[in-house]
Write a structure and sequence with these properties.
The chain has 68 helices and two strands. With 1487 residues, it is mainly alpha-helical.
Length: 1487
């Protein structure tokens, strides 16, 4: 195994070396090498800029470093793509660090007066800071690369000259001690903050004393070596200069842990050089202990770093393991093992003492010591495991059993510490390495090895080789048995304990622990004799795969078991005779899924099962695996198509590809499936369930049975709603392929599952039944359904209708499923005249059990109790008269012809009642499914003359419900049903059709809060669309009989007065008015639903008319049905919506405009059509998107040049200009500026456009609705801020009256809206602009009204903030405080404005305000101020008229109050009935 790992590392070197060679020739690099790193040029440029110190400031350096790290982090999932560029990344950074950091520091430390330093240049502070920060960022980049690609690959690219060892080691010592110093300072700062928060003082004195003690101790303990003195000096200088900002990662003077990490890895490469350490330093004093000096320095530093909390611990662990495995370090190796043993024992003993002598005062210290001890143990374990892995087995024999015992004892301490995940992983790694050392180093001779046949050998030679191998096996059987006996005797007893610990870890809750344990099992069993290895494999199979994989199995155990078996199979340790046991477990694991509430567990088990399949495919020969091959392949295909998780589907696809590739010819249609259902296509879930299902279903004999069995028995009952829906679609597709098999073998089972107690099972079965019936109808295979199956399907509806206990989401799903079944029943055309009570017993005997009968009885009893309870309730607030009629109308109509009780058991009546019940359900999706089913039921069963009376009664009842029922759910359902009527087949009268249309139109424009409902309006528009299509078809038939050549004008007039055209125009005008719906509630702009749907419906009408006009040449023209005024108003409305702030509405409106302009052949009655087509081109840029305002608004604003579209478009743009989104405001202003700048070369035309634009603003200010007042104020201010319109006022043009009137209108608006603080605040900016910007102008009108408006805001006694902001704007005035007639007035005015604190209380500012208004001659405002309303007095109690009333009031003081509350509640409940309705669907139906 170790050799295999080394080979893998060598192969990873090859592309790197080739990359280095090819870099010398750019032309060769372009032709011979391929790279998938798109950012490679940018990455190299940034690194080159970093190492050459080309950054001008720190911010630029930080930005570029962040960009480099971001680019590298993108390749975490595919790090091998970076291999070709690794040398170009690492080498410049290492050279830069070596030349500018390591060598410079060592030169300064060794010889400060050397001649080579006489010509050095002293950089300024900025250059030095950038240089230091560049070095720090270089270390960080190297760490990020090692994180992405792995340190084992990266460390090989470091420079590894022997001369670099001492400089790098010196710098490592300095950097590490500085890093330790920083951590101490951080800890002290944390202690200070904690102490201050707890009220402790004199903390500085204690810290100084502690520092002095630490300095004395360190001075006593430090040696007198020059290197150590240098370290101390560096630390002192560092502490003095960097006592602040220690947490700033961009501080160039703070050592980062990445620097220590990279330097330690660098030293780990340098210590394995094939030279003695004593030969490295020829300039030393001649002492013979240089070897001891270097090794002892590294060992001392490494032991300190093993307890570090950061990644430094891992790098030093790697360093120590490589150092101690040197051939000349045998003694130090044994000493380190002894030190590790003693340290582990000491930590364990201290932990026991602390537990025995626990003291509450020392809890914090104990916790800190415990954390440090855990980190130290982790570091020791990691070092020992790496050392045992890299070293020679003979160096560690005999194994130190004392170390083993201490490790096992310390495991209990580690488990109790709470850091189980990290420590246990390292613990298991160390245990497996100890076991490998204890066991003989010979791989198991009993393992299975696949015979690889040479390609060039002929058949006869292969037979001879096989015969010879068989003879050798027979001759060596006895010798192998003897060898096994000898090997068994050599197995240490500790192996059993190690195996027990590893097997226990296979059940661990952490995946990394299970994965480590699985690899350990494979490595250890590879060294065991056959009997013992077989026992371990048996334990894995028996203990890991327990219980049912769908109910109560342990997912962790199954996952660990699959991983262990896969590792054993990869090594050939899973013998062929075990496959009979393993393959069934494997198939079960492929579908492992345990439901846990609203989620499931098992995806990791299924993924590991795919890994086991992959291992089996690679290991075993065709002759061994062939009995199980098709079973595994079929199930892998199922998992690759239908698993919920994408990683499981891809894993199964990869395993299947391995099966096909390794066992060619044994997997039927394998190559075809692999090329179609490959690793990427199965990534799309919808594609897997639809397209790939159709492809796989064609293989009837090999894959179809497994696929359909899985779908009908497992997947349609999945806990995930999306999976159930997709599975039902898959069944629909497979029914198209083999309908008879599904109807005969699977449909009865699915029907029986509709009576399950589990909601997801019942819902999945109903979806599957619906899809099967639809498929049979589409392919004319209805005759495959027997009468018994039809009755069973009808009984599912009857049985489900009687179950009243489905509440919440579960009830919604069941109702949706049943409505889908009813839809498919009506589509197929079942006979609904049969009495289901006569076949009840026979169907129940086939589809249900006695337990279901008991459950049905209990349900009926509970229903009776609920009805009794409901009948006793006398709450007028929840029993409106019409809502009751809405739930009982259908029942009364169905029983009006016959009072016989058997009529209720007719299938038609059951379905009708069930759909009527669901039509009134609060859930929107339930109502829509019920309306779809109603539409088919009407067209196929109610449109006949026999049931015409029933249809008329239904229409009448639902018209009444839509008009006057306060139950919103009932009105929503009625609005849907009225659009599902069989207009074509039932031949409804004109009066009835007119009534339906009028009721739907009235529901759209309801203003009564009790009846105003957005969902009802949306449903009514959908119904009007269906009626409109029906009326248009009648119009087309009527037009087809016209002869245009004779009396064309009379025919046109006659057509315009016809009933159908009048009703269509009524619908058209209704939808046009609906585009003005701007309703808002807590969900936001819900009126946008109506606006969007209305535009789509109107456009569909236009397309339908236009298509009919092109198909029939003798008809009246398109312009006759939709005249120019209608199409212009519609397009104007679309432009208005395109200018609004909602991106979705803009996208819909602009796309409709685009289609209207470019429809072929073209529509002629569109105003300015040709100019519009130049703006909105036929094929815009591929990246163009109407959602992006920076792209769409410049195009839209170009339409402002057309007068017919100017006002509506500008009105819509006011929604964006006056919105709250900054980017939307900026894009709108810039678009308008671009529009006006396009006329710069035509000044006269530009003036005309500005004048027309201003008049549109004036018109909008006159007709501003309440919802648009604030956006209008903000929009006018934003437009004035562009200074495009300033010349109107400054130059006293004839059109200056426009903005005078705009100002007057705005003044009148705020005058009548003094209580709207948001409006008042938004108006201050507008009036201030008029007041200040045009104060120097002689326009007295604007000056007068702008001052008047600001004074009006200053007179607002309700909002101090409004007064304060208005006064701030008045203070900016110049001419306000100048008056030539009276010299005292300006000074008084100025004093009042500046000296009064306007946000004080009303009593304080009232007199100064009156004085100011009096001085400014604002009599009108003084009158408004005197009329300021006061607070309403508290109403007095009514007078007592008699002594009895007085006594009653004393005895029952709360009686009158309670009566008033009851009356108020009664009134409120009547007004807001829907607020009291329960949200639970079933409770609402019970009511």
């Amino acid at each position: 195994m170790e050799n295999h790992e080394d080979n893998s590392l060598n192969t990873s070197e090859r592309p790197i070396e080739s990359g280095v060679a090819n870099l010398e020739d750019p032309q060769q690099q372009q032709t011979c090498q391929k790279t998938f790193v798109q950012e490679a040029p940018e990455l190299m440029m940034l690194i080159d800029k970093l190492v050459q110190l080309k950054h001008s400031n720190k911010d630029e350096l930080i930005t570029n470093t962040t960009r480099i790290i971001y680019i590298i982090d993108q390749y975490l999932e595919q790090p091998t793509l970076l291999d070709i560029h690794l040398n170009d990344i690492i080498q410049p950074l290492i050279n830069f660090i070596k030349s500018n950091y390591i060598n410079n520091n060592n030169k300064n430390n060794n010889n400060n007066s050397d001649n080579c330093n006489t010509n050095t240049i002293v950089d300024d502070n900025t250059t030095t800071a950038i240089k230091k920060l560049s070095i720090k960022n270089s270390f960080r980049i190297i760490y990020v690369v090692s994180k992405v690609r792995g340190y084992k690959t990266i460390v090989k690219l470091f420079q590894h000259e022997a001369i670099d060892l001492l400089p790098v080691l010196d710098q490592l010592e300095i950097s590490y001690h500085q890093w330790v110093n920083i951590n101490k300072q951080r800890d002290r700062l944390n202690e200070i903050s904690v102490s201050y928060s707890s009220g402790i003082t004199l903390i500085k004195k204690s810290i100084k004393e502690e520092e002095n003690n630490n300095n004395n101790n360190t001075e006593e303990k430090e040696d007198n070596n020059d290197s150590n003195n240098n370290i101390e000096n560096e630390e002192e200088n560092y502490n003095i200069n960097n006592s602040h900002n220690i947490d700033d990662e961009y501080n160039e003077n703070i050592i980062s842990w990445e620097e220590v990490y990279v330097l330690a890895l660098w030293v780990s490469l340098l210590v394995i050089i094939p030279f003695k350490f004593s030969s490295l330093d020829s300039a030393s004093s001649g002492e013979g202990d240089q070897l001891k000096s270097i090794s002892s320095r590294i060992l001392k530093l490494g032991k300190l770093a093993l307890s570090d909390v950061s990644k430094i611990r891992d790098s030093f662990s790697e360093l120590l393991s490589k150092l101690l495995n040197r051939p000349d370090m045998k003694y130090e190796q044994k000493q380190f093992i002894k030190w590790s043993t003693d340290t582990i024992q000491l930590i364990s003993n201290n932990n026991q003492n602390n537990n025995n002598n626990s003291n509450s005062n020392n809890n914090n210290n104990n916790n800190n010591n415990q954390n440090n001890n855990i980190l130290l143990i982790i570091g020791i374990y990691s070092t020992l495991a790496s050392m045992f892995k890299k070293g020679s087995r003979l160096d560690f024999l005999p194994m130190d059993m004392n170390l083993y015992e201490k490790i096992m004892d310390a495991n209990k301490y580690l488990l109790a510490s709470g850091s189980e995940r990290i420590t246990k992983k390292i613990f298991l790694k160390l245990l497996q390495r100890i076991a490998i050392i204890m066991l003989p180093p010979v791989s198991a001779s009993w393992r299975y090895q696949k015979l690889i046949k040479p390609l060039l050998l002929k058949g006869e030679l292969i037979k001879q080789i096989n015969n010879n191998n068989n003879k050798l096996k027979n001759n060596n059987n006895q010798e192998d048995e003897e060898d096994d006996d000898e090997e068994e005797g050599e197995i240490p007893e500790e192996i059993d304990e190690i195996l027990e610990e590893i097997l226990k870890s296979l059940r661990d809750k952490d995946t990394i622990i299970r994965w480590t344990s699985a690899k350990a099992i494979g490595r250890i069993v590879n060294l065991l004799p056959k009997d013992m290895g077989d026992q371990v494999i048996g334990l894995v199979i028996d203990q890991m795969f327990e219980k049912n994989e769908f109910i109560d199995a342990d997912p962790s155990a199954w996952h660990g078991g699959c991983l262990a078996l896969a590792e054993l199979a990869r090594r050939g340790l899973l013998l062929p005779e075990r496959l009979d046991t393993v393959v069934p477990l494997l198939i079960r694991a492929l579908f492992f899924d345990i439901i846990k509430g609203t989620y499931s567990i098992g995806s990791h088990v299924r993924d590991s099962a795919c890994y086991l399949c992959w291992a089996l495919a690679r290991t075993y020969h065709n002759s061994i695996l062939s009995p199980y091959l098709m079973t595994i392949c079929r199930n892998l295909v199922v998992v690759s198509l239908y698993d919920r998780e994408i990683n499981c589907r891809k894993s199964a696809s990869a395993a299947f590809q391995e099966m096909v590739g390794r066992h060619q010819g044994l997997v039927p249609n394998g190559i075809e499936i692999v090329t179609t259902a490959d690793f990427f296509t199965v990534g799309n879930k919808n594609n897997s369930f639809t397209t790939l299902t159709t492809f796989i279903g064609k293989f009837q004999t090999d894959y179809y049975p497994t696929v359909i069995k899985h779908l009908t028995t497992i997947k349609i009952y999945n806990w995930d709603l999306e999976i159930r829906q997709l599975a039902s679609k898959s069944i629909h597709l497979l029914t198209n392929i083999n309908p008879k098999d599904i109807v005969d073998n699977y449909l009865p089972l699915i029907i029986s599952n509709t009576q399950s107690d589990l909601v997801h099972v019942k819902h999945g079965a109903s979806l599957a039944i619906s899809q099967i019936l639809i498929s049979l109808f589409e392919n004319n295979n209805i005759n495959l359904l027997s009468d018994n199956l039809k009755m069973m399907i009808l009984m599912t509806i009857k049985n489900t209708k009687n179950e009243k206990l489905f509440k919440g989401k579960g009830g919604v799903l069941v109702r949706i499923g049943m409505c889908k079944i009813i839809y498919s029943i009506c589509l197929v055309g079942f006979s609904l005249d049969k009495n289901l009570s006569q076949i009840k017993k026979s169907t129940e005997s086939n589809s249900s059990s006695s337990g279901n009968e008991d459950r049905a009885t209990a349900l009926k009893l509970k229903i009776a109790m609920l009805k009794a309870k409901t009948s006793q309730m006398t709450k007028p607030t929840i029993t409106p008269p019409l809502s009751k009629s809405s739930s009982t109308t259908v029942a009364t109509t169905t029983n009006s012809n016959n009072n016989n009780s058997n009529e209720n058991e007719l299938a038609f009546n059951i379905i009708l009642g069930y759909l009527s019940e669901n039509l009134n359900h609060p859930n929107e999706e339930v109502q829509k499914e019920a309306s779809k089913a109603f539409e088919l039921l009407f067209s196929k069963y109610i449109s006949s003359n026999e049931k015409r009376s029933l249809l008329l009664e239904l229409i009448d009842s639902h018209c009444k419900i839509l008009k006057s029922d306060i139950n919103r759910s009932a009105r929503r359902g009625s609005s849907l049903l009225l659009g599902s009527l069989p207009f074509n087949s039932a031949k409804l009268s004109k009066e009835l059709l007119t009534r339906v249309i009028n009721e739907l139109i009235a529901s759209i424009f309801q203003e009564d809060p009790k009846f105003k409902d957005i969902e009802t309006r949306v449903n009514s528009i959908s119904s009007l669309y269906k009626i409109g299509v029906y009326i248009l078809n009648l119009i087309f038939k009527e037009i087809s009989t016209f002869n245009i050549e004779e009396n064309e004008e009379e025919k046109r007039k006659e057509f315009l007065k016809s009933y159908n055209y009048v009703e269509f125009i009524k619908i058209w005008n209704c939808l046009g008015s609906a585009t003005n719906d701007y309703s808002i509630d807590k969900r936001g702009d819900i009126g946008s639903w109506v606006r969007e749907l209305s535009c789509k419906v109107l456009f569909d009408f236009i397309k339908l008319i236009y298509q009919n006009n092109n198909n029939n040449n003798n008809n009246l023209s398109f312009e006759t049905i939709i005249n120019e005024k209608m199409i212009t108003e519609f397009i104007s409305k679309l432009f208005q919506l395109s200018g609004e702030k909602l991106d979705k509405i803009r996208d819909v409106a602009c796309n409709i405009i685009h289609q209207l302009l470019w429809i072929e052949p073209s529509i002629n009655n569109i105003a300015h059509k040709e100019q519009l087509k130049k703006i909105i081109v036929k094929e815009p840029d591929i990246h163009f998107n109407w959602f992006r305002t920076e792209e769409s608004l410049p195009l839209i604003c170009r339409v402002l040049q057309f007068d017919c579209y100017l006002y509506p478009l500008l009105f819509g743009l006011f929604s964006s200009l006056g919105g709250t989104s900054k980017y939307l405001i900026n894009d709108s202003i810039e678009s308008i500026k671009q529009y006006f700048s396009s006329f710069n070369d035509r000044p006269d035309e530009k003036l005309e456009k500005i004048i027309s634009f201003s008049r549109a603003i004036l018109e909008i200010s006159f007709n501003t609705p309440q919802r648009m007042i604030q956006p209008t104020f903000r929009s006018i201010y934003n437009l004035l801020s562009t200074h495009i319109f300033d010349f109107f006022i400054i130059n006293n043009t004839n059109e200056k009256y426009i903005f005078e009137k705009i100002l007057f209108n705005c003044y009148q608006i705020i005058k009548s809206n003094q209580d709207d603080i948001y409006l008042l605040l938004n108006s201050i900016e507008l009036f201030s602009y008029f007041f200040i910007q045009f104060e120097k102008n002689e326009n007295e009108y604007i000056k007068c009204y702008s001052v008047k408006a600001l004074l009006l805001l200053l007179s607002n006694l309700k909002y101090p903030k409004v007064r304060k902001l208005a006064s701030d704007q008045l203070k900016k005035s110049i001419k306000l405080f100048m008056n030539n007639n009276d010299e005292t007035s300006p000074s008084l005015i100025k004093s009042l404005v500046f000296n009064t604190k306007w946000d004080d209380s009303v009593q304080v500012i009232l007199e100064p305000l009156k004085s100011l208004l009096l001085l400014l001659n604002q009599d009108e405002l003084l009158e408004l101020l005197s009329e300021n309303p006061t607070k309403k007095p508290i109403p007095l109690a009514p007078p007592i008229k008699s002594i009895e009333e007085f006594k009653d009031k004393i005895q029952n003081p709360h009686k009158q109050q309670s009566n008033e509350l009851i009356n108020d509640n009664h009134n409120n409940n009547n007004n807001n009935f829907d607020d009291n309705l329960p949200e639970d669907s079933q409770d609402l139906m019970e009511i």
